[in-house]
Amino acid sequence: MKKLLLLLLLFSFIKAHAQDEAGLFFAQNYSTFRFVDSNDNKDDLNYTIGFGYGALYQKAIGDFMFLRADLLYNKLGATSQEGIEKLDWELHYAGVDAFFGLKMDLGRLKPYAQAGLYYSYLLKADQHIGVLYYDLIKEDLLNKSDFGLKVSAGVSYQYSNEGNVFISINQDWGLWELEKSDDNQNMYNRNFSIQIGLRFSIVE
Question: Is 104 helix (H, G, I), strand (E, B) or coil?
């Protein structure tokens, strides 16, 4: 009975202190692949510039905690060199992020940090080797699902009672292998991004 009362009190506290926000954002991506060979030697390919955009939902819990979920599109990839030929990969993903975050209240400025997980589904995958082009989905060379860790730090500015503009830096670490091959050589997504966006209070 005491546990039930504590749960009811906790639920009432969260509901009384929760604030809902929705928003939109754009991201500039700097992505690469982490290559791990059969001897566990690690190397990152050259970075390539991509972009992303999406929508978010954020629920504040108390004054210093929040939960956030994103629906987003990302263009990732990497580049490399093989002799005189340039290798270029372009991977297009649709995905979801889920975060737990902490924030500070400095008046209109609100610094925050968040950490969570992401899941992405591969929509399109192109590879260029010199003038040659390969559709990696058609060739069935890549796994379509990716999963990993994501951390972020940023600051928002409350320009009105209903709206915030924010900027953040983000780092993604892919944990699932990109390629389907069984040659004991693995590649994983890595992405650093700068995100800007707007959040608006949801009026019930």
Answer: coil
Owning domain of residue 77: 20-201
Measured distance CA(39)–CA(4) in Å, rounded: 54
Render pLDDT for 120-163 as a digit per residue (tens, 0 to 9).
Answer: 999 999 999 888 999 999 999 899 999 999 999 999 999 998 89
Look at phi and psi of residue 183 and say left if phi exceeds 0, alpha if psi is from -120 to 50, else beta. Answer: alpha
Q: Tokens for 28?
A: 């500039």
- Domain membership flag for residue 4: no
Q: Give the tens place of pLDDT for each residue, 56-93.
A: 999 999 889 999 999 999 999 999 887 778 889 999 99
The structural domain count of the chain equals: 1
Q: Considering the domain boundaries, does residue 10 fall inside one?
A: no
Residue 170 and residue 183: Cα distance in Å, rounded? Answer: 31
**1 within domain boundaries:** no
What is the reported pTM?
0.85
Could you tell me how far CA 133 lies from the centroid of its own chain? 28
